[in-house]
Amino acid sequence: MTYTATIRRTRPLECLILPSLLLLLTMGWSRVVMGTGVVGNFIKINITVVLPEGGNRTKTIDTDENSLKTFGITREELSSALIYTNANGEVSEVVMGERHIPLHLEPVRDSSYTSYSFGTVDGGFWSVSASNFTNITIHDLEDDETLEAVEVSLDWSLPPLAQPNPADVTLTSALLEAAIYLDNTTLVRQKVSGRVAIGKWVQMVPYAGVYLQVLNPHTHLTTLAAYFNTQDYFIDRELVHTLTNLMPGRLAFLTSYYDTSGRLGASSRDTLTSLGSFAARYLTFGDCWSWAWRVGGATLAEGLVTNPHGVMSHPPPLNLEVPVSPSPPSERLCESWPLSWNKRQHFCDMYDGYGDLCSCSAPFTLPANATGTGEELGVVVVAGSRARYLFRLLRQLLTQPGVALHQVLVSIDGGYEETIKLVDLLGLRWRVHNPEGKGSPRISRHMRFALYHGVQLLATNKFIILEDDLILAPDFYSYMQQTAVLLDKDPSLFAVSAYAHFSFRHTAHDPTRLYRVHSLPAYGWMVKRSFLEETLPKWPPVFVATDWDYWMGCGLVRRGRELVIPEVSRTSHAGLSGTHFSGFVTQKRFSNKPLSDDPNTRVNLTTVNREVYEIELKELLSRAKPLNISDPYNFTFPSEPGEVYAVCVKMHFQGDDKTFKVLADALKIWSQDPRDHHYGLWRLPYHRATLLIIATPYSKYSKNYLKQQCPVLSVNGALYAHMLDNYNDENYNFLRHSPLDFLTIMNLNLDSRAQFEHHLMEHSVSHDVTSGEANNETSSHISTLLGDKTVITSTLDEDKTVYTSTPGEDKTVYTSTPAEDKTIYTSTAEDRTVYPSTPPEEKTVYTSTLAEDKTEYTR
């Protein structure tokens, strides 16, 4: 982009003269004097202009020293400032803190010299422009060693049977320790050195949760090892989903660490009870719990040590010993399966958690690979160690009409044998990437690898890209087939996405409607082969820390083109473990999003025609009623059916997003950043009305489109702080036993309960059975009365069959993989059930003693 300076002389108003900054571009033009006053010496300064389509443009200018002094700025300050344009690429001022300095530049666009800067892993910047790639094509990547697939040899033989010797399993559950031992072998052990003080604070310690080990009773090998961080949201659902998809006959061992109850919902407790647990329904804060059972059969043993006084006490540790004996070898394999299913026999013997993929009576099978109607699309799936997530996705994808199995490629980031074997037994193509970097760079480089091999291996003109932790709507593939024609007909589009960030239950109602937006693709998207061929040679190197999707949304990649998104999403993000996600993030950003449920939905392609789309927007703007808002959190947004409302928010450039974030947060929609807009305008079907959010003055629609004056919302620091507070996980479900809980847990009869209540009355002990609160005197009496009955052990072996598992010669010791957020939360625990987090003045320092084998496993 080339700029020319516009001469603006400020007119005096009475005695007031507003100076202008004297700027001249050194592009061969003659010098022109601007502003008022005495002209001093000219000096050269490099200024950086942020362009409306993204990226930066650096230019050398001449400026007058006296002008700098007039505005009280230095050469260095101006040189380091970012100068932002509006949507039309115009510059009217430089904003430096509270100072607004007039500066007028008229742009002449030259995108080949526009530079884009991205953060690097060492804290620096990687700057690049289209001119860096003028002589590079995708064929230049053929000799790139980082794009070479890793050779993997798979062994499909069955592991040998274990010796038929009796064995003992020991489960430990304690305040700061969880462990599962098989004879002299440690299956899992998590121990934190430190202490948790007794008091009014609920201290949240690292690694708290549930540890699961599943054993094959015939080989004594671990088929599933998982850690569930039960301090996080939705983890109880993942725990239940995992347990309900275990293969019948397996030996399952579960033990808790510190606290399991906080996020364990009522429905999850009911499911655990239906699977055979007696203690799941009674768990409260700090209880120690261990459970051993045969999947699909009886509980072998279960132990519970209650923590009767909540934060005012610590329970003693639980050590539960479970004797097991061998299972008949004849029950090892599914005899009804075809002989050709040798890979499935091996896979289901080695791994667990795949539901009917390993069902002997009703196994899952892929539909016949019949030729469907519509365009045949390539599908590239990026995957890693989360094989159970991947199976859920592939099952949904491969059962949709029209999907061609030979046009599906799964790219695996690392030699994860379980994932590779799953894809192989399903008969799909796969490639293994040798991981590069860590975190975001690793994900970005794997995406590059996957797209490159998709272009090389799949004979299609368009490609769908999926990640392994997505949920697909039943019309996902149909949606992609219908919208594929848009990429052929409209060169102003670069991709189609199946996901809309602003698609929530109160802002998305019509599954047939599509939108044009300036944004980045996410959670299931489609591009043409030609787009990948032009984009892959520009891909950021491994030292760039920026996420790949943000890079794909920049002007260097989009080149002024737009993205098509649906009003109602066709995908949902469902992963709770990963580089960028946790249960809290899922709860905050993804829990209230609708998913199309009609497999026969026909989308309206006409409305995203560029001319038709513009006409419709102008019509909506012409009848929009501007809203005057000062505090979005205390404003009732109208939602009259058929009405159109406009909210103008202060935004000088796309990064000037504080006001937008506050408004979006108040509307309970996506508020992380201002993506999915059309030239700075967001169109939301708010309930049954239409709400237009207009970035002012950034959006081209902020001038001369609305018939009525639109008050501009600008938030203060307090409102922005309130928005940030909403991203803090401040609540934790603190559950506490009532004084008589042990009677219910031990299934004592009413007479025993009456005797106990009479005993309390005789000793004048006050208690509140309903609220679960008791005074200190009550606590001391109950401690005496409970005695050793706080340790409950249940041996429920109705079929009289005792199962065993003895260690093989070579066993893997698993250690937990904690959540990324190591924040220690605390909450007051007085008279409420849900307590806000308040960190104490002194933090307990915990050190983790991990098992020697650092094998990583995921949920």
Describe the structure.
The chain is α+β, with helices and mostly antiparallel strands and 859 residues long. It has four domains: 2-109, no CATH class; 167-194 and 206-330 and 796-816, no CATH class; 342-350 and 372-608, Spore Coat Polysaccharide Biosynthesis Protein SpsA, Chain A, CATH 3.90.550; 610-732, no CATH class. Mean pLDDT is 80; it is low at 1-39 and 764-859. It is built from 19 helices and 41 strands. Helix 6 runs parallel beside helix 7 (417-425).
CATH class of the largest domain: Alpha Beta
Count of DSSP strands:
41
In one word, what is the shape? globular
How are strands sequenced across the largest beta sheet? 22-21-20-23-27-25-28-26
Cα radius of gyration in angstroms? 32 Å
Quaternary structure annotation: single chain
Quick structural summary:
Helices cover 21% and strands 25% of the residues. The protein is an alpha+beta fold. The protein folds into 4 domains: 2-109, no CATH class; 167-194 and 206-330 and 796-816, no CATH class; 342-350 and 372-608, Spore Coat Polysaccharide Biosynthesis Protein SpsA, Chain A (Alpha-Beta Complex); 610-732, no CATH class.
List the helices and strands and how they pair.
Elements: E1 2-5, E2 23-25, E3 42-50, E4 56-64, H1 65-71, H2 75-80, E5 82-84, E6 91-96, E7 99-108, E8 115-119, E9 125-129, E10 167-174, E11 177-182, E12 185-193, E13 201-203, E14 209-215, E15 222-228, H3 235-244, E16 251-257, H4 266-274, E17 288-294, E18 299-305, E19 318-324, H5 342-350, E20 378-383, H6 387-398, E21 408-413, H7 417-425, E22 429-433, H8 439-457, E23 462-467, E24 470-472, H9 476-489, E25 493-497, E26 514-517, E27 525-528, H10 529-535, H11 548-552, H12 555-558, E28 562-566, E29 571-573, H13 583-589, H14 610-622, E30 625-626, E31 644-651, H15 658-666, E32 681-684, E33 690-697, E34 712-713, H16 717-725, E35 731-733, H17 741-745, H18 750-762, E36 767-768, E37 773-774, H19 776-786, E38 791-794, E39 826-828, E40 834-836, E41 847-849
Parallel strand pairs: 3-5, 20-21, 20-23, 21-22, 25-28, 30-31, 31-33, 31-34
Antiparallel strand pairs: 1-7, 2-4, 3-4, 6-7, 8-9, 10-11, 10-19, 11-12, 12-41, 13-39, 14-15, 14-16, 16-17, 17-18, 18-38, 23-27, 24-29, 25-27, 26-28, 32-33, 35-40, 36-37
